[in-house]
Description:
single chain; 4 helices; 0% strand; globular
Amino acid sequence: AFMHILDENVELVEKKSAVAVKAFSLGVLENMVKLYPELKNELISCIELLLPTASSGLKNRGKHILKRLSK
């Protein structure tokens, strides 16, 4: 079940979904990293790939998550 949730959220972030859906999915993935720290580097890579083409709101969300993950 966990892998299905992870896959669905990563897919939502990577697809041409609405900004709010992507931002929510990043939050879900961030929470999953708290439970499964081994996924941290995957999420960091995903966010870094997303940032160059992201909207300003999504960039803000991504940068805040990256900052929290670096602690």
